[in-house]
Amino acid sequence: MSIPTSSVEQVIPEQGAMAQPSVRPSRRRRLRFVSGGKAATGLAVVAGYVLLAVIGPWIAPYDPDARSADLLQPPSAAHWFGTTHLGQDVFSQILVGTRGVMLVGLTAGVVATALSVLVGVTAGYLGGLADDGLSALSNVFLVIPALPLIIIVTSTVAGAGDLVVALVIGLTSWAWGARVLRAQTLSLRRRDYVEAARATGERTWRIIGFEILPNLTAIIASGFVGTVIFAVMSEITLAFIGISSVSSWNWGTILFWAQSQQALAQGAWWWFVPAGLAIALLGTALALINFGIDEFVSPRLRSAGRSRARTADGRTVRMRVGFTPVLAPRPASPAGSGQREEAGR
Amino acid sequence: MTFLLRRLAFYVFTAWAALTINFFIPRMIPGDPVKSLISRFQGQLSTDALHSLYVLFGLDSDDSLWDQYVDYWRQLAHGDLGLSFTAFPSPVSEVIGDALPWTLALVGVTTAVSFLLGTGLGVLAGWRRGSWVDGLLPVTTFLSSVPYFWLGLVAIAVLAGPGSFFPSSGGYEPGLVPALDTIFLGSAVQHSLLPAATILISSMSGWILSMRNMMVTVAAEDYITVAHAKGLPERRVAVSYAARNALLPNVAGFALSLGLIVGGTLLVEIVFSYPGLGFLLFRAVSAKDYPLMQGIFLVITLSVLVANLLADVAYLFLDPRTRKEG
Amino acid sequence: MSEPVLEIRRLSVDYGLGDSAVRAVRDVDLTLHRGEVLGLAGESGSGKSTLAYGLTRLLPPPGVISGGEVVYHPVDGPPVDVLTLSPTQLRAFRWAETSIVFQGAMNSLNPVHKVSTQLMDVIRAHQPGLGRPARLARARELLRLVGISADRLDSYPHQLSGGMRQRVMIGMALALEPQVVIMDEPTTALDVVMQRQILSQLAELRERLGFAVLFITHDLSLLVEFSDRIAIMYGGRIVEQAPAAQLYGAALHPYTDGLLHSFPALRGPRRELTGIPGAPPDLRAMPDGCAFHPRCPRAFAPCDSRLPRLGPPADAPDRAVACWLHPAPEAATR
Fold it and tell me: In chain A, which residues have their Cβ closer than 8 Å to the Cβ of B15?
């Protein structure tokens, strides 16, 4: 499980003293986020997964359930990722399983994000008692360990399918986003243009819809991505420990069978390595998108593009907080501004 | 002290909410799997045990919901969590009591170490941007995107196995009797190395990253510039001014993500068949041992609440602004 | 005029490196004399704060000093160029010779440490021989100096009012009795009453301790009262420099004139408030010639093509201006 402490919470501390998404980012700024290397890479990989989720079952070379005589074969030209103890093709299982993983991840993400926006923005905008109540509610959900709760709920629902799993995950994992959105809504509400809209008697839903929500886009997106990561991990976990239905394929199911058939003891590494790498790649891609969003919201976090420079007289100076580098040659000699070109190299 | 009192009130409220959720979950399920299980043990259950299971799972459908709720609380107050089916006829509280120390030791120690180590590396990465620690970031991102349990599987495949120093499963040498002597403790530590390393590797990157980002944010604060302008030694600026302030949101984040971390680490126990709550939960789930499942959920939730309270106390010491009187 | 204590020569400061660099301070020459108050005024974005942070080398990345010298003259010993100091030397130099009071009264103090800790750590860093009792005594003395009772030593910053915090900062700035104190909008965040209190206290302290002040503000009327000389910045350059009374009496540069008419004077005859039309120049695309010419009501032929040089006009040898209306005798072009 990745720890979601990284993202937006840090960018928007409760005091709100630090960098906040600029008010009404222009369209160009929004697009620039995509052109950042991290986010673009992440988006491309996720797009690839979505494509696989759609076409995976059609392009799979074998029926993932079909047994064959090739029992527990290592990867070969016929079976790219090898076979299971029943001779099933692991590559086909991964391809077919992508759909379930993406479906649950995205559905849970949508459910949780919708809830977090509803709770967070309402609490932040209304304030007062409603805020106290909703904040307490989200804090309760935040503190109660989600995974054990999900495990218990899904295991009491007999034979939970993808949809049930997605709903349970979505209903239990909205609290983080709600908390962050509440804090940000609170600070947005005090901005001049929102105050002005309120003073002129604009309807509440219009203020929320047109003045507040557009400025929360980055945070909502980041919360959505974070929930998808969590949902994918949880779903795979549930399948791995055999709680959700093991009859439909997802990467967790593959790991479940690998574990229960002692793939490790038999040295069948190909049985569990591809699924793990597929999860890791998806998780990394989603995390990259979130880094991109974070850096977009708070440009300070960007890796300092160039942190070193060569001066005219061949010294290397470092960009460093508290010690501004001097590009002028030393010992100090009369230096005009014509030096800038060489100094920059 | 009002800060602490407010937090305490919140945790009491959360505990109440968790226990209430726990009360409602089995009651919302159509058809009761518990009943079928009870009937399997029909002859062997005493009337008391039977009653307590009825109270826990809402099988007294004659009583009003409120009476059921009151009974449920009365029973919890006595520490009665029902009987475990898998460990029949041991009470759930006893089964959990055996597993809890293992989890506390493994998860507690590794979580603390992971937080401290990750925070320390995050300080380095944030203070000296472009240093070698920055190179760690992509690696740790990847590692934290791998499910804990899968990393455990790989660790077992690569490092454990016949003849290896690292045992692949269990909490101690099978022949040993649990006791507080060096042989047993040595064996326990040896068995915990691999699961601990797994948890450490996958959980640390979150701390590195959040602390790095906090350091970068704090480094632009005025008081850091002032500290530089004062000509203080770099170490003092980095530690006592930057890191000291960057730590605050990280500790708050630590408290809030405990629930998530604990969820992940329980899975590592499953992979390593480590005799803690996670493995117990896994066994309870596979055997549909509902009383045990519910009990474990309660204990985990309460432990996380206590850990949260401890983190709040730490925060109180770290941030003078919360210490304000009145 | 007394001897110089800090000489800034042809200082240029950039944001960014290479082709993406933006020059925020251009070839600035400025001299601070021992014990005087030199005011530095200009609109936001004129480069006045960048100049202050640049000369102390406190400018955060991506700021770089791209040329020039900052020569400091100690009371005894040879002059040093601050820009050539190694980090260790720079640390020893800072606060002992030049200290700074920053604009953010709220954020200048570390929120997690007591006032005493923050007063004492600077003494400890520079005078390691001094024991704790002596440091504590000094800290108490500093608070008394700025009119704060000693029982505030154990307070945390959040327990102090804005004015008190800024006074603590001023006391801290005087901890090592520096020759130069740089003040960057020290009273902007405070209310007017507090502003006046702190300024008069500052004037009194300067009388007593004799340090020189580089006082940066956008509020020219404040400077007219408080400083000996005033320098005006526009577009990263000094455009006018003169004794305070002379500048107030007769501004030579049209920009100075505009600034003077942007603020109500606190004392003296009333003036009509007109302000300056237009917006400060974009540092990425500076106009040719005089940077002010697009906004200047009196621009004429040479202004949009040739850069006027800062120099004394023919009729006033002790002041300097960069304007084609008052060309220096040896006015050079670029």
Answer: none
